[in-house]
Design a protein that fits this description.
The chain is α+β, with helices and mostly antiparallel strands and about 80 residues long. It has one domain. It is about 30% helix and about 10% strand. The protein is built from three helices and two strands, in the order E-H-E-H-H. A two-stranded antiparallel sheet has the order 1-2.
Length: about 80
């Protein structure tokens, strides 16, 4: 589930309540759900590129491994002399 806009309240009374799919997760490793959220849109903080993912440990581990390939290695074209 994409919860980037989860902090928005579209009711007319704007009482500050929000709804999250996480409320329905009983066991993050057994339930068939992945939740993605972040600061930029949820808290209206443009420029803050901070996000998080809630899901099964194996899935999160796999995503972390993929991320290290994207941001952990040098940029070949910038490194050429």
């Amino acid at each position: 589930m994409d919860e980037f806009y989860g902090g928005y309240n579209y009711t007319s009374n704007c009482d500050g309540t929000t709804v999250s799919a996480a409320d329905n997760v009983e066991d993050v490793d057994d339930d068939d759900v992945i939740i993605v959220d972040g600061l930029t849109k949820r808290f209206r903080l443009p420029g803050w590129r901070v996000a998080w993912i809630i899901g099964p440990k194996d899935f999160i581990k796999a995503i972390g491994s993929c991320g290290s390939y994207l941001d952990g290695m040098y940029i070949f074209h910038w490194s050429r002399a």
